[in-house]
Amino acid sequence: MATTLRDIAAACGCDTSTVSRALRGDGRLSADLRDRIIATAARLGYRPNLAARHLVTGRTRTVWMLSGGLEAPTDHLPAIAAASHLRGRGYDLLVAVHQGDREGHDRLLGRMRQQVCDGAIILASHLDQDSHALVALAATGFPIVFVDRHVPGIPAPVVTSANKAACAGLVAAAAAAGAQRAVILFGRRNTVDSERLDATHAALRDHGMVADGRGPVAILGQDEQVIRRIMDQQGIHPCMIGVFDRWTGPAPQDCTVVVQPQDFTSMAEVASDLLLDRMEQHVAPSGKHEIPCPAAIRIG
Amino acid sequence: MATTLRDIAAACGCDTSTVSRALRGDGRLSADLRDRIIATAARLGYRPNLAARHLVTGRTRTVWMLSGGLEAPTDHLPAIAAASHLRGRGYDLLVAVHQGDREGHDRLLGRMRQQVCDGAIILASHLDQDSHALVALAATGFPIVFVDRHVPGIPAPVVTSANKAACAGLVAAAAAAGAQRAVILFGRRNTVDSERLDATHAALRDHGMVADGRGPVAILGQDEQVIRRIMDQQGIHPCMIGVFDRWTGPAPQDCTVVVQPQDFTSMAEVASDLLLDRMEQHVAPSGKHEIPCPAAIRIG
DNA sequence: TTGTAAGCGTTATCAC
DNA sequence: GTGATAACGCTTACAA
What we know:
The structure is a homodimer.
Chain A: H1 5-12, H2 16-24, H3 31-43, H4 50-57, E1 62-67, H5 73-88, E2 92-97, H6 102-112, E3 119-122, H7 126-129, H8 132-139, E4 144-147, E5 158-161, H9 163-176, E6 181-184, H10 191-206, E7 217-221, H11 224-234, E8 240-244, E9 256-260, H12 264-281, E10 288-291, E11 297-299
Parallel strand pairs in A: 1-2, 1-3, 3-4, 4-5, 5-10, 6-7, 7-8, 8-9
Antiparallel strand pairs in A: 9-11
Helix pairs in contact in A: 1-2, 1-3, 5-12, 9-10
Chain A binds a DNA duplex through residues 4-6, 14-18, 20-21, 24, 26-30, 33, 48-58, 115.
């Protein structure tokens, strides 16, 4: 059996409430007793039972991050950054993954209403897009924050990259590389994808470029793998590739690759702080927060 | 405020203990009352307070997975597989990430002794290798299981791929491709790396191959990125590349790439079941469990 | 079939 | 400064 406050109280000949206070530095008590308590607590290897503490305080000092899967950098980079940022604030971050499974997804959202965490960072997936469970959770006032993708209509802060600016930059780079048209691999699979699609079309118009036709072509997309696949399948030889986050290996022949990184660390930190605001004061700026992207990197 | 058993009891004119039993299908009680209780619970949106339940039962039906970082497939693939497997067994999986930080690492291990989870799957990192906190945790009899990497000397089940056989297979493929020597990129960074290094050397001897000299060369390693870098830096043109888990893109000129996948899903499932054994019966086979690798894939 | 009551390990509000 | 004492919300014998 684990040591409890009672064991320490018995060993020190005092009351459990005194031990509790001593161990939390709360209240004023004689230095002598305090030291004795702390010493025996250490000797007995005392660890507070968090279930009991949570029950009485109603708070867990724990934040969950809900994620569909962890493969993508857009999922695990924010997780890592938020974990260390929140740790510094005295909170533990736990990542819950539902892997596209509706039942698991809903169960995890349900858990949040059961005193297992004080708030949650949501990396929205397609499941969230019409999730009754998520709407219900948000309706209770439970503190949530979206990172990167979000669900329109749910009143919670959203932290994203400055996607419009980033896409405009990529299109400008495409034009500078001599492209007269572009293959656009952004779609409408989520809010980020959608925003990039719209921003890219707008920027193309500004540069007098078109989506199809003849002449030197650029490829713009989110993901290296997808871009490579399309190039192979359709035999495209672009003069420029614009891609988010990363490109492994060298640039293809006669082609400039422009990589637009995203600052997931800042995104996670801003999101964490917004969440802490909501958790601690129940007040929250529920709008959109755009994190500037680092300078683009040119390969080849 | 959230609805509690008392609210339902009041609404139904019965006792909280009756509500508790009705909601868990425990005990026998009149169908009428049971239905009324269930209906009002649903109407009031009742969700059991898990902190309270954990306190009284001493169990959380939660498993933690401890991971250094989530970038590598060896980290997130087991996480995803274990999450869905454990969900089916009535447990929630939460991933805790310490990102190479000693303080965070120890704090998370400490949490496990504080009734936040019933057991843990450990993806051992360099921090665990001489972690006093991990040794202390294991010494308490807290149920843990290692997946992939492990910490020698800690009495807990270890689930790995059949690395010896896999390495022997890669060396055989190298020989078949005409290689007379091999550049080995396995090191001694962790237990898996080490095991592969030894197994590969042994297999090379069996095939009469050497680590350096002249003649057609093979490169054997864990990671595509590392292999590509070494090839570039040292200007090596291998006749065969043996790599674990994945190779993106085509094979280099005049080179066969043999990819040896690992079955992380099975590994995670076996590990989960071993952990459940330990958690539920406190009995456990503490040895090594090797999961066969899927057939190797040949590219080029 | 249902109610009573004890208790899980803490924290917090009082007295003294 | 320190000790009773009452919660927190739930489960679980044991009575009735």
